[in-house]
Amino acid sequence: MSPLVRLAVVVVLGLGGPLAVQAAEPLAATGVIHGDQDGGTISRHLYGHFAEHLGRCIYDGLWVGEESLIPNTKGVRTDVIDALKKLKIPNLRWPGGCFADDYHWRDGIGPLDQRPQTINIHWGQVVETNAFGTHEFLELCELLDAEPYLAGNVGSGSPEEMRDWIEYLTFDGDSELANLRRKNGREQPWRIEYFGVGNENWGCGGAMRPEYYADLYRRYAEYCRDLSGNRLTRVACGPSGNDGNWTRTVMERVGGRMQALSLHQYTLAAPWHEKRPATGFDDAAWFAIVREALTMEKTLDDTEAIMDKTDPDKRIGLFVDEWGTWYANEPGTPGYALYQQNTLRDAMVAGVTLHIFHDHCERVRMANIAQIVNVLQAMILTEGEKMVLTPTYHVFEMYKVHQDATRLPLELKSPEYKHGKDAIPAVSASASRDKAGKVHVSLVNVHPTDAVTVTCELASVAATKATGRVLTGDKLDAHNTFDDLDAVTPKAFDGATLADGKLTVELPARSVVVLELAE
Ligand code: AHR
User: Fold this and answer.
1) Could you tell me the CATH number of the domain that includes residue 419?
2) Which of 187, 222, 337, 472 sits 20 to 30 Å CA-CA off 329?
């Protein structure tokens, strides 16, 4: 029976298994990969991460302290470091988040037993021991071989406090603060490129109007100096999602005094106070979350159009330094800890969102998924000495081949994934050529039940062989647990063939595939 005339009988998957049976035409997508065009560099910083003093991200997830029975390296869990190193993490943002605008860096330096106990006003009013501070964070970055991205305190701090932190971190001369750093164990200054001047100053960072923030930014940034050859990329607080008024005001009033503008956009598909469960959802919730993730495209289009007006040469980068899914907290865990499971649906969100960032790489030069361990759309979940890698972790691991590669424009005509009266494209794809000349193609099929045959013409891509891996699961909320670590894990993929200058991929339903094309 020809695949074109065959009617496939498919099973609509739900949480507990088959929900209904429907007939469907086999789906097909077509595309062209332009191997002779330079679609920009996919900055490795699009694969950045974020760690906040929130719930069990820092304490438990990363930091257990040198005295812990859990194996650790300088106080950081060794299992977590080893797993994260496989992702080639380019940068790590810290200490928040909302926490940043109530953080006073002096609380987190010096002998441990002399650090003050403070309270985390944003996240459960838990007592913060300050055991993990500036030195511990920067040592973690060194262990991960990741660049640090610090968020300074505008909301409740002063320009003096921010200025002093930068001197403490980066000055190599004989000043009181540089000598204090030496006394605390660090002789050489650190190199800090990325520095956020506040976080969400429209909300938890001070509830400011954009005009007021823009003025404050100018004042604070004036004291964020490049010391001892260090060069800062100063990041201004940008909009919450698609807020053109905030973007316009800050762009017009701050302009070239910033090197980057941040943007935060989470995927909830629900009002803030009615968040959806992370597992145990139906196909309507699958569709709603994926569809909302795709709105990142319009947010970026609209934000870039505003930025282009005052910065047509694209000197200012757009950093999506918080993104990801946000669900109801797991039953039995405190709401403020933002601990959620992570399923195959999150892998879809990660895959399609990273493709959107690739397509906007001219302006979008950093992105940080929230957050790295135990919070929101995490890479890793921990429980005592146990650790589990999430489906999102696997997408980041599979996609790392795109880091710093040249984007190859990929034109794609996707079939629709219909749900009721609504529809979104079933397939999303991206291609790149790395520095060694290898071409990689990543593809996501968000259709929950139907495979898609993708046929791509290869223009100026010399290849005879396609190998790769696939990530999928047996149900919509397939996920890994501490008792079943590998329910959703990448497997070898044999569904790609090359013939007559064409790549054909039999893309399974609800899957992420990454291929390497070789001559
Ligand atoms: O990532 C959790 C919180 O989300 C951050 O603290 C804040 O910046 C955002 O609202």
Assistant:
1) 2.60.40.1180
2) 472
Which residues approach ligand 1 with their CB closer than 6 A?
Answer: 52, 96-98, 199-200, 322, 370-371, 376
Query: Is position 176 within any domain?
Result: no
What pLDDT sits at residue 11? 41
Task: Out of 4-8, 248-252, 337-341, pick the least confident.
Answer: 4-8
Within this chain, do residues 357 and 506 fall inside the same structural domain, yes or no?
Answer: no
Q: Is the pTM of this model over 0.85?
A: yes
Q: What is the pLDDT of residue 26?
A: 84
Catalytic residue check, 200: yes
Among 136, 167, 200, 397, the one annotated catalytic: 200
Residue 22 pLDDT greater than 70, yes or no: no
For residue 277, which phi and psi values (nearest 5 degrees)?
-70, 150
CA distance 67 to 154: 35
Phi, psi of 40 (to 5 degrees): 95, 170
Query: How many whole angstroms separate alpha carbon 304 and alpha carbon 296?
Result: 12
Residue keyed to tokens 């949480």: 15
pLDDT band at 24 (very low <50, low <70, confident <90, very high): low
The whole-angstrom separation of Cα 331 and Cα 350 is 24
Same domain for 299 and 334: yes
What domain range is 199 assigned to? 41-158+189-403
